[in-house]
Every structure is written in C-alpha cells, then in structure tokens.
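User: I'm putting together a teaching handout on how multi-component assemblies are represented. Below are the sequence lines for each component of a complex, exactly as they appear in our records. Could you produce the 3D structure of the whole assembly as structure tokens, so the students can see both representations side by side? Please keep the chain order the same as the input.
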Amino acid sequence: MFSYILKRLLQVIPVFFGATLLIYFMVFAMPGDPIAALFGDKPPSPQLLAELRSQYHLDEPFIVQYFYYIVGIFQGNMGVTYSGQSVNDVLARTLPVTARLAIMAIAIEFTLAIIIGTISALRKGKLFDNTALVITLIFVAVPIFVLAFVAQYFLAIQLGWFKPTVGAQNDWNDLWLPALVLGVSLYATSMRLMRGSVIDTLNQDWVRTAYSKGLSRNRVVPVHALRNSLIPVITNSATNFGVLLVGATVTEAIFNVPGVGNTLFRATQAHEGPTVVSFVTVFVIIYVMVNLFVDLLYGLLDPRIRYV
Amino acid sequence: MSDQPRAAGHFVAPIKDAVVAVDAVKVSSAKPRSLWSEAWHDLRKRPTFWLALLILFVVLLMAVWPTLFTQTPPNDECFLANSNAGPTEGHPLGFTFQGCDIWARIVWGARTSLVVGLLATIIGSTLGLIMGALAGFYGGWLDGLLSRVGDIFFAIPYILAAVVVMTVFSQYRTPLTLAFAIGGFAWASTARVVRAEVLRVRQSDFVTASRALGLTRFQTLITHVVPNSIGPLIVISTLSLAAAIVAEATLSFLGVGLGSNVMSWGNDISQAQSSLRVAPQALIYPSIALTVTVLAFIILGELIRDALDPRARANR
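Assistant: Of course. Below is the structure of the complete assembly, with chains in the same order as your input.
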C-alpha cells in the first residue's frame, strides 16, 4: 500500500512540471503587452516600463521566467496579479467559495443518484425505470449553461424561489441554485452507475444467501445490497468533486459566484499570465490529488482490491 | 440442473447438455456472422437508432443546404421593429430582442456546430488513436512516455485549456483553431480507451500468426491490430462529437469561441442571455436545437456501444 502511494506520488512530479510548463508556455505566447495594458491610453516613460519589466522578470527569456515562477511556488509564493494582489490572497478568498459550492453540488448529486438509482434498479424495466433513464439521458445532453439559464429563468425569475445571482457577499444558503444546477448536471452518470451496480449486486451469491436465511427485502436491500453497490458512485462523486473544484467556470460566471472558475476566466480575458498559471497549477495539483485519493478509496471500500 | 451435484468453482456439463450444444452448432453454422454484422442486425431493430439517425440527417441537411429550411439569408439585417415579435409567415419561431429571425439563425448556425464538432473530433480521435495504439502495442518505455504525456493533458481540464488556447490565438478565431483548441486537449481519454483495447487485441492468435507470416511489427499494428481495435474508438468518437459540439457552444458562450458575427448556437444563446427576462424564446429555441443534436449523438454512441458488446446485448 505504502509503495503504491509512493509510486503514484512520484508519477505526479512529471505531470506537475509538464502541465505547468505547457500552460506557462501558452500564456507566455498570449498576444498583447500586459505592462503597456496597465497604463491604458497614457503611455508610460520607457524608464518606468523597463523597471516594471525587470520587476516581473518580463525581460528574461521564457525558460528563465518559468524557473523564477517554479522557485516561487516552492517557496509558497504564487506570484502577484497585475492589479497588485498576491495570488495566494486571491486563492484564499475564492477557493472556499468554490469548495462550498462543490460540496453542496456533490451532496445533491449523491442523494439524487442513490435514491433514483436504487428505485430504478429494483423496478428494472418498469415505468419508473424507463422514465428515469430517459430523463437522465436528457440531463446528459443539456449543456450546463442551458441548464443554468433555464433554472435561473424559471426557478429564480419566474417563481422567485432563489436569488438569480450570488454576488460577492455570500454564505451557504446563497449557493443553492448554482449547486442544484451543478448537482443535477452531474447526477446522470452517478445514477446510471448506481442502477447498474444495484442490479449487479442483487444477482450476487451473498444476496441470495441473505434471502435464503429468511431475511426480509427491507433488510436485504439497504443493509446487504446498497452498501456494496455504493463503491462506483462514491468514486465517481469524488472524481466529480475534483472536476467541480476546477471546472465550474460556466456556472460560476452565470450566477456571478466569486469562485476560482470565475476569477480564472476573468484573468484569462485580462491576459493576467501569472494568475492564470497559478490557478491552473493549483487545479492540476488538486485534480491529481483527488484522483489519487479516489484510487486509494477503491481499496478502502472494496476489500477485494488491494494495492501491493 | 438443480439435482446435479455441483463442486465449488468447477462445473462439468452433463452429457445431455453437450449433445444439445452440438445441435445448436449445426443450426448456427448455416450463417456465421461477424461482430459488425451482428451489431448492425441488433441496431436496425431499434427504433431509437433510426430516430437518432433521422435527427442527425436533418441537422446535416441544415448544415449543407440551409436554404432548404429558410428563405432568410445569413446575417440578414435584424430590424429593431421586429424586436420580440411573435411567429409570422416565414419566421416560425419569432424574433429575438434585437429583431433577428430565431429560426433562420438556428438553421445557419447548424453548420458551425457540425463543422467545429467534426473537426475537433477528427483531431482528437486521430491523436488519441496514434498515441494509444503506439503506447499499447509497443509497450515499454514508449508506453511510459506516451502515457505520462497523456496524464499531463488529462490533468488540465479541457474547457480551461481551450479558453487559454483561444485567448492566445484571439486573432485567429476560425473553426479550425477552435477545433484544435478542443480536440488538442480532448485526445487523452480517447488514447486511454484505444490503449486498453490494443493491449487486449495484441494477445490474439492472429497477431502472432501475422508475425509468423513475416509481417513487421509496424505492418501488424496497421493491418491487424488497429482495424480490430476500432470498435471502442467509434463509440468514444461519437460521444466526443457530442462533447465537442457542447464545448464549441460553451466557448462561444464564454466569448472566446468564434467571433460574435459568426452564426452559431453558442453565440445565439450567449447573445440571448442579456435579454433573458424579456425575450426567453431567443434562448430556449437555440438551446433546444443544441440539446437535441447532442442527445442524438449520445444515443447513437450508446446504442453502438451496446450493439458491439455481446454481454450487454445478452443482458438486455
């Protein structure tokens, strides 16, 4: 187990350097001069320009800039945005919002998937199952921004159940609508996994044994079957959590959630190289760590899987 | 069968079952079917398959021959006098807040969605096939290298990467650039699927046989291994096509896709966003067009996957 974790952690190293180098290179190639953009219409003196350039290492070749950047990261310094805020501060402000949103979305997804997936599996081929599968397929196909707009229009504007946008000041309660949209958009895959898993489990020997011992269906299904069917849904939800921490850009933009996705998108539009690279770097680390965690979770949940 | 004693983990078929099996072989030997003809035989009996094909045919027709569906020319001037007007003769879905014909924009936008989706899928699938096939077939250090490269691309969420690429190439917002931005980062998951399938096919007897017949390793890979690993690639390509169409719309929506003067479903939805309260129809109709097209590709992909998988077929 330990050597497996070590091996996976070692595999993270090339992914980390490769991904940051790739993003850094692309951002480096972005058109436009960020320093000149700082000043708007009034051109700055060449002296000041040169000073700022050397302050941000913009006068150095690409690979040297990358080197400075990586050294900074290992010292815990993610760089400074062009508006003067430290990227650490920006992350510290935005990441908790996104994490809250992700937790709520996953909770909604998980609950929906387990309830609907289990009922579907128990009534395989019946009306409920077929209806649920058709609805699921539609949710797979509807792009997230369409879902977000439809929810915003009907649930917030028409019915007035939620606030249409979130805004800078927010707590858990303000995030229900975006969380609902994200949760519903993710639920389809988990629900299908749950349905398939429960169907498989109900055909297993130990379930037959439980029935033949005289246990009732109300005991066999929740205690014996459900617990053993949860593994794929839990791992899928954990992967989704990683995706949500990094990928909720569209939803955050539509509902004006001040999270990392929204901030990153604005930074890209403003050509703020260091901010973009820092965010993507953090994303890559989170994403890789969550995937490692998911792999380990498999072993923890299913005693048949052991890493050696 | 219940009266037969059954040893744990080892089951010997009784003689009378074996005789039945011989009869069955005689019957089925009349016409042996390949995996593909078996899949086709299964697919053509399913109404949803034909429904999905019909939808895709209509969308394809819109892309190739838009004037068949609408008389309104592309990028027709929008008259503010028509702002938010309801359906009229020749304009079945009414008008947007800016007074543009919604139906005409949907028809002309189909081409953008399909072209970008197809190009992105071709780029992503080709890259994925090459990387996955080489990694799976040759193994060793090449597998290690290509798989790590795949990991790098896999670790960067691909909408994010596409946003960065499109910002870098903001002067060249053509369908081809957009397709590269989407396909260039989406190939990693295709490569994983192809690699797994090639690893499986590589063990087959016909691969050993083709080597024994004197083919080089590369010839074996091209003529025998790749054609036999193509099934999962077709399935994942169909599903990626759906994802690429969504990605195009998402990027256009975020303002980093094609220019706002290009007619595309993503642009339509993006532009309708600001007038959502007063003109929801301008957002709903292009969204329906987008969703139905994506749905058709997803249904097609899943049906082909089921048809190619004998186990799923038996379970149904």
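A couple of points students might notice: Chain B touches chain A at residues 148-149, 151-152, 155-157, 159-161, 163-165, 167-168, 170-171, 242, 246, 249-250, 253-256, 269, 273, 276-277, 280, 283-284, 287, 290-292, 294-295, 298-299 (CB under 8 Å). Residues 135 and 308 of chain B are 24 Å apart (CA to CA).
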